[in-house]
Amino acid sequence: MDITNIKAFDYHPSISNMLIDHWRRTDTATMAAELSAILKQHPDRNAVRITHSFEAYQRSPKQYRKQHEERLELCASLGLKVIECLFNRWHDAWFDCGGTYLEQLVPDLSWKYKEGYYEPFLQDVCIDHKDDDRIVLWETCNKPFGVYRSEAEDLIMARYYEKRWLRELYCYIKKCAVPQPVGISFREDYDAETFKHLQKCCDVRILSSYYANPEKTAQLFEADFSGQPMPELTIPEY
Questions:
Q1: Residue pair 211/183 in contact by the 8 Å Cβ criterion
Q2: DSSP character for 156?
Q3: Taking a C-beta distance cutoff of 8 angstroms, is the pair 190, 139 a contact?
Q4: What residues does 138 pair with on adjacent strands?
Q5: Could you tell me the sign of the dihedral formed by the alpha carbons of 67, 123, 158, 237, in that order?
Q6: Contact 82/50 with Cβ under 8 angstroms?
Q7: CATH number of the domain within which 85 lies
């Protein structure tokens, strides 16, 4: 499927607001009913964005791989291609659905981070499915820099390490010759420097239709930081 033909929607199972529960508590019957209901209301959709949980994977890689295959089979049975969002970095005080935190990005900040920390997950979820035609796009991260608003407020170089992490994810996937394009979910409040860096970490810019300031987003996207046009994809939530 060509990227320009994707008409996707974002899906989170209704059982919980937490990503880890989406993988450890939901079942395919619930997902089938909810996805079918969305398709009934929006029959033009041909792809679904599903967000992964690294923490659920850590608890049982074998079970996670099994659930991943079940979801891919379910989506295919409904005529849906899959956009795989590998990590989430959007957190706030009122609605935090989990995902990757600072301790998992900065060396020596805690015991959680080490060299090659994410490679087993990437191997099982992404690399092992690089020739899977059910998957149309890999999204390395949902809204990076979702906590730190400026370089001036970054007292421990958090944004530097997050930029490095995003680049490492992208380069590892490309090194493994994954044929599907790689995207990142962009936010409207990125400054030009951050936007320029993220252009080096993806092939596709992914927009969320619930942005509060679409004019600002449009102005940012009109700026050409990469030297060549980059495909864009908007994914609404239902």
A1: no
A2: T
A3: no
A4: 84, 182
A5: negative
A6: yes
A7: 3.20.20.80
Tell me which residue has tokens 């690399």.
127
Q: How many domains does one find in the chain?
A: 1
How many Cβ atoms are within 10 Å of 77's Cβ, its own excluded? 11
Q: DSSP letter at 144?
A: S
Task: Pick the closest to residue 231 from 206, 197, 198 (CA basis).
Answer: 206
pLDDT in tens, 171-224: 999 999 999 999 999 877 777 777 888 888 999 988 865 555 556 555 555 555
Host domain of residue 199: 3-235
DSSP assigned state of 223? S
Whether residue 78 is predicted with pLDDT greater than 80 in this model: the reply is yes
Amino acid at 89: R
- 3-state DSSP assignment of residue 6: coil
92 secondary structure, DSSP code: -
Stated pTM of the model? 0.89
Q: Is the pLDDT of residue 32 over 80?
A: yes
Taking the C-alpha atoms of residue 75 and residue 77, their distance in angstroms, rounded to an integer, is: 5
Q: Which stretch of 15-19, 67-71, 150-154, 170-174 has the lowest confidence by average pLDDT?
A: 150-154
Radius of gyration from C-alpha coordinates of the chain: 17
